[in-house]
Amino acid sequence: MTCCTTSSDRPFQQKRRIRVLWALTAAFIAFHLVARSGLPVESLILTIFDQLGILLIAFGIIGRIWSIIYVGGLKNAELVTDGPYSVTRNPLYVSSLVAISGVCLVFGSLLAMAIFTLLAYLVFECTAKREARYLSHLFGERYEEYARRTPLFWPDFSKLDWGQARAFSPKALLVTSRDALFILAIIPLSEFVEYLHGIGLFSMAVTVP
């Protein structure tokens, strides 16, 4: 992806990432309309997928709120290295990926989960690498030392450091709450699409594993 090759002295334009994620959301909704899980509606496995998906969504939302409490209003202004930022340098992206995996699992297809989770991961990884170069430029050796002990993406909970209590940005928390509501809205949307499939409105829908 070209975003990984941009100049390290400028912060990554988050609007690009957001546009790509909106495109993935639209693609997932379109996929949901033309495809359906091959599992029977009353299948125990499908029920388990639903419950696991909701659990992953909950973990993702909690992770995003936890991250915002530590970094809200301080991004690119202060190097935050405690709390969720002590186990991964990108807890917001990790939490978002967990929530996305949950949304896909609610659909009931491991194939859909694998495809859309992988695509989202590639977007987040690309953004994280670009941001790492910018933060290295911004904070110098402090960031390099932080990067040596903290994974870029996948968390290492053995390194958890709760740090000190701090004030957080209400605006940042509000934005995260809005995003959480959008993610939660996917659940009833998924059920509605299943209803449309059930009444035969999308009778030509293909089944996927």
From TrEMBL:
Record GO cellular component, one term: endomembrane system
* The entry's keywords: Membrane, Methyltransferase, Transferase, Transmembrane, Transmembrane helix
> Is Transmembrane a UniProt keyword of this protein?
yes
Q: Which GO terms describe its molecular function?
A: methyltransferase activity
Localization, UniProt: Endomembrane system
Which GO biological process categories is it annotated with? methylation
Tell me what topology the record assigns in the membrane: Multi-pass membrane protein
One short Pfam name that applies is PEMT
Gene3D superfamilies the UniProt entry points to: 1.20.120.1630
* Membrane-spanning intervals of the chain: 20-39, 51-72, 92-124
Domain of life of the organism encoding this protein:
Bacteria
The family database entries (InterPro entries) matched by this protein are listed as: Phopholipid_MeTrfase
Which PANTHER family does this entry report, sorted A to Z? PROTEIN-S ISOPRENYLCYSTEINE O-METHYLTRANSFERASE, PROTEIN-S-ISOPRENYLCYSTEINE O-METHYLTRANSFERASE
Question: Which named protein is this?
Answer: Protein-S-isoprenylcysteine O-methyltransferase Ste14
Origin species: Rhizobium sullae
